[in-house]
Amino acid sequence: MVALRFRLRLPIPGDLATRCEACRAALDSRGYHRVTCRLTGRNHARHREIVQAWRQVFIEAGGMVPRRNIERLLRDTGVPVPADDARRLDLVVTGLGVFRGLPLLVDVFCVAPVTGAGQARPGCLTLDGGAVRAASRRCHVVDYPEVGPSGAGRLLALGVESFGRWGQDALDTVRALAAARCEALPPRVRLGLRLRLLRRWWGLLGLATQQAVARAISRGGDADVASVPAETVPGLADLPL
Fold first, then answer.
1. What is the pLDDT of residues 156-183, one digit of tens each?
2. Given phi > 0 = left and psi -120 to 50 = alpha, else beta, which region is 73?
3. Residues 173-180: contacts with CB within 8 Å, 24+ apart?
4. Residue 152 has what pLDDT?
5. Mean pLDDT across the stretch 47-64?
6. What are phi and psi of 186, to 5 degrees?
7. What value, to the nearest 5°, has the Cα angle with vertex 167 and ends 162 and 172?
8. Arithmetic mean of pLDDT, 138-156
9. Span 113-139, average pLDDT
10. How much is the mean pLDDT over the chain?
11. Inter-residue contact 92 to 99 (CB < 8 Å)
12. How far is CA 65 from CA 4, 44, 241, in A?
């Protein structure tokens, strides 16, 4: 219901008419500020949920994404950057035959085409997907410009807008994964399975995005405080020597 009301620009029930826990700005009843504020922890949680959905898709497509390849430092991927470079990639995927078999260096992001006041951002009013296009361009040109010329991997800016419009890299990637997954099958079943995979993977990604955006809006004012520990707390007798 929260996701539906957000897409229809309707007021969202709940205690939203307070102040942001991070920047202390006044909140609106439609959730725009909670989607756009970069200082609160709720959008970091939103980002993590979408990254996990992409990891699921890559694994189902036959890729390898071990835990060490989540939030991996760019300097540990073979891309020539300074030894003290602290930039990270959301995912590093290997073992796939798409994009010439290069390792996939993935940056996942969710951007809002509206401001915290509910107004369209520049370039978004007359251009479909203007926000995700601008973010994808920034990813390739500003954030990770060394990846392309290095030949050490293929940079994928897997972006989506908060209302559900996907960027071109995301569209091309899912199509390439589905085609590669069915490449070795008999032609008679190849098309049907590819369509099923596309339906499943877009369902996973789309649902994860809308759920993550809705949770970012509906979380209470303590969303920037961790409510559960990162791992189960072991007993003293279980600690290794």
1. 999 999 999 999 999 999 999 999 999 9
2. beta
3. 173/98, 173/104, 174/57, 174/198, 174/201, 174/202, 174/205, 176/98, 176/99, 177/57, 177/58, 177/61, 177/96, 177/98, 177/201, 178/61, 180/61, 180/62, 180/96, 180/97, 180/98
4. 92
5. 95
6. -60, 145
7. 140
8. 95
9. 88
10. 87
11. no
12. 33, 20, 30
**Whole-number pLDDT of residue 168:** 96
CB-based burial label for 47 (10 Å; 0-12, 13-18, 19+): middle
- Distance CA(70)–CA(8), nearest Å, equals 34
Residue 91: DSSP 8-state:
E
Q: Can you name the residues that pair with 108 across neighbouring β-strands?
A: 158
Give the pairing type, strands 88-93 and 104-111.
antiparallel
Return the closest-CA partner of residue 85 out of 104, 103, 94, 72.
Answer: 72
- 130 CB-side CA count, 13 A: 11
pLDDT for 226 equals 44
| Structure tokens given for 63 | 């890729």
Contacts of 206 (CB under 8 A, 6+ apart): 164
pLDDT at 234 over 80: no
Confidence of residue 123 (pLDDT cuts 50, 70, 90): confident
10 Å CB burial of residue 67 (0-12, 13-18, 19+) is exposed
CA–centroid distance for 96 within its chain: 20
pTM: 0.86
Q: Are 55 and 67 in contact (CB under 8 A)?
A: no
Length of the chain: 241
Angstrom distance (rounded) from CA 51 to CA 69: 12
Is the pLDDT at 39 greater than 70, yes or no?
A: yes
127 forms beta bridges with none
